[in-house]
Amino acid sequence: MNRVASNRKTAMKDHSSVKNFEPTSIDYDTRIFAFREKDEEVSVTLLRSRQRIKLVLGDYQRTRLKDSKPTSATLCKKGSEYYISIQVKSEAPERIHVDTVLGVDLGITDIAVTTEGQKFGGKTIKLIKNHYASMRAVLQQKAVKGTRSSRRRCRELQQRLSGKEARYQRQINHEISKAIVTRAQEIPAKIALEDLTGIREGVNQKAGKNHRRKVNGWAFYQLKEFLSYKALDGWCSSGSGGPRIHQPDVSSVR
User: Fold this and answer.
1) In Å, how far from its chain's centre is CA 43?
2) For a tag on the chain, would you pick the N or C end, based on fewer CB atoms within 10 A?
3) Coil, helix or strand at residue 72
4) For the chain, first and last CA: distance in Å?
C-alpha cells in the first residue's frame, strides 16, 4: 500500500500516469514477520495462517543475518519461485584516512583502467557488445517489415536479448569491482573513480549514432554502485586497511 500511495502522490504532483502494480509482493513488519537465525527460518503471516518457512541461504546472506534482528521484509514472487528480501540495519563504521590513491579511469574499449596499469575489458567485451548491437538492429529491421505475428515475436526476442545483455554487464561489473576493491585492500588505498556525470547528455547532443551507442552501451553507474558497496564491505571486514571511494571531478571518456 505504501508503494501504491507513493506512486499516486508522485503522479498527481507531476501530472503523469499512475503505475499499475501487479500482486507479486507483500511487505512485512514486526507484527507479521520474524526471523529465526538458529533454524534459518522466517515466520510470516499468510492469508489463512502463520507459517514457518525454511530459507535457502548462501554464505553472504548468512553472514549478513548473523546476530541481527531484522524487523521488516518483502516477499516476492518471480515465476514459480518465492524470494524474501530481509532488511538488516547496521551501524556505519568510523571513517578511516589513507594517503595512497588508486585511480580508476572509465572508458569504452577498456571498461576500467587503474593507475597501476591494470585493465578490465578489452577485445572480448567489445566483440560481445557489438554482437548485441547487431542482433538488436536485425530484430528491429524484421519487426518493421514483418507481419503482426513476426513483430510480436521480434519484440519478445528483443526483451530476452535485453535481459541477457543486462545480466552479462552485471556479471562483468561484479568481477571488475571485486578485483579493484581487492587490490585497494592490498595496498591499502582509497579508490578515486572518474566522474562521468552529464557525459551522456553532451555526447547525445553532439556525437554521431555509432559513437552514442558506444558511450551509452555500458552500465557505468552500476559499476560505481558495485564499487561503493564492495568497498564498504571490505572496509568493515578488514578494519582500518580497507578502501574508500573518492570521486574527483573528471568528465571525459576515452
Assistant:
1) 29
2) N
3) strand
4) 46
Could you give the 3-state DSSP secondary structure of residue 73?
strand
CA 228, CA 234: separation in Å to the nearest integer? 10
Distance CA 208, CA 194 (A): 23
The pTM (predicted TM-score) of the whole model is 0.62
**Rounded mean pLDDT, 124-149:** 85
CA-to-CA distance for 113 and 135, rounded, in angstroms? 28
Mean pLDDT of 78-93: 83
Mean pLDDT score of the chain, rounded to an integer? 81
Residue with cell 503523469: 16
Other C-beta atoms closer than 10 Å to the C-beta of 145 total: 10
**Block residue for cell numbers 534482528:** 69
Contacts of 13 (CB under 8 A, 6+ apart): none
Helix or strand run (H / E) with residue 8: helix 2-14
CB–CB of 51/43 below 8 Å?
yes
DSSP label at 241?
G
Check residue 214 and give its pLDDT.
62
Q: What is the torsional sign of CA 142, 140, 111, 214? A: positive
For 225, the grid coordinates are 554502485
209 DSSP β-pair partners? none
Q: Give the residue among 173, 159, 178, 182 at the shortest CA–CA distance from 241.
A: 182
Report whether 28 contacts 86 (CB < 8 A). no
* Residue 65, Cβ density class (10 Å: 0-12 exposed, 13-18 middle, ≥19 buried): middle
Residue 223 has pLDDT above 70, yes or no: yes
- State how far the Cα of 102 lies from the Cα of 180, in Å rounded to an integer: 9
Write out the three cell numbers for 253.
571518456
Q: What is the pLDDT of residues 228-247, one digit of tens each?
A: 888 876 654 544 444 544 44
